[in-house]
Specification:
About 0% of the residues lie in helices and about 50% in strands. The chain has about 70 residues and is an all-beta fold. The protein has one domain. Strands 1, 2, 3, 4, 5, 6 and 7 form a 7-stranded mixed sheet that branches. About 10% of the residues are buried. The mean pLDDT is about 95.
Length: about 70
Amino acid sequence: MLSKNDYKYITSDMSQFEFTCNSTDEKPVGTYEGRKIAVGSTLLEWDTGDIYRYDEGAWKKFGEGEP
């Protein structure tokens, strides 16, 4: 089950979110609760321990594809 733990308002219609969920849960893309998901939002998968960062409209796993 997806949970919103914290958020910061970036603009009137955009927020930077902190989410937690299981790896099998559907992850929000684009918007959540009517607000755009800002770059830098984070998501922690409880069951795997994997952490993701929102960038360019997708969730990217920390450490993959980075130097």
